[in-house]
UniProtKB/TrEMBL annotation, chain A:
It comes from the Bacteria. It comes from Chitinophaga cymbidii. One of its GO terms (cellular component) is cytosol. InterPro entries: Aromatic_CoA_ox/epox, Ferritin-like, Ferritin-like_SF, PaaA_PaaC, PaaC. This is Phenylacetate-CoA oxygenase subunit PaaI.
UniProtKB/TrEMBL annotation, chain B:
It comes from the Bacteria. InterPro entries: PaaB, PaaB_sf. This is Phenylacetate-CoA oxygenase subunit PaaB. The gene is paaB. It holds the Pfam family PaaB.
Amino acid sequence: MTKNNALIYMLTAMADDALILGHRNSEWTGLGPVMEEDIAFSSMAQDKIGHAWALYRIQQEDLGGGDPDQFAFLRNEKDYRCCHLVEQPNGEYDFSLMRHFLFDHAEAIRYEQLQQSSFAPLQPLARKLKGEIKYHTLHANAWITQLCRAGEESYARMQSALNACFPLALGLFEPGGEAEDLLVAEKVYPGEKALQQLWMDRIYAILSAAALNLPGEHAVQPAYGGRKGCHTVHLQPLLEEMGNVFRTDPAATW
Amino acid sequence: MENQSLDPRVNRLQLNPSGEAVTVQDGENWNVFEVFHQEKRGAHHEHVGCVHAPNAQMALIFAKEQFGRRKKCVNIWVVRSADILAFSAEDEDMFANNLEKTYRDASGFKVMEKINKYRKSTRHDEE
């Protein structure tokens, strides 16, 4: 495994997570619970697609990768590296919000660490996205706290959303084997285990203030496989819809 | 009478079909918040619109994307509309004679004219 390939492995996983979740969250556009939230959630979904684009672009410019649009829309399902969390259908708003909360805190932690990455192109990107992700986590924290104090039914739904999302969210930190070892040795980033620990500490503080019970890390089966190209049944239909327009004329200029 | 609206929020309102008064539970009704944005540090906050939210914190969260995502903005205030004290429309007559009191208008001091006249005369001298 070369350092180049290891970097492509990591950046593709990050970008695919952002692309697929950005697409999923954008499915709420026009259907959000209130207009203000509809606008905020849609706007953050667009941000995620922007993050994916920036990461595909780094691969193109610094690692010999292809055109970001082609790479985003024309790969086969097994060539995507996203985790199972982001593939899940939206379900109801409790599930979507909890996923947004768990995902965006993981993203915040990852980019915080990448500000010191030995892979130079990631440093300015991590700094640039800092404020945007700060708003995303602030939004998520406010909703989680609010809904956990909004009566019994609301609280129960948030707890069951957390129970459903947590094993899936652990898949964000799926061990990356040889590629990960190389990136850690090269000081590109501190590794999945370290990120997961930081993430657990961060979300625990907010969840406990909302009186939610975080399932034990070892009491659940993490949803691994996405980083190796093994996906849930939900990804293929999403890819078909997402790339539908693009595939009608892949050479078109937009 | 069953409500036939396709909007699920209408049914969530639990309107009383017999037309009797409905008891509103705490937290059921959202407030309107006025939003003020600040374009740069030190500038005035300007009123830009309003958002609907369950509390001030959520109003601020909503206002950020509603009013701060396109143009330049460095900060936002939200104020519950109900907390703003204003005159009623029928008291508009209190302001009616303002335009006749031009002697209170600072623009009545025509000092710029004199300054410009002086500048013009000195410029002539230099030439």
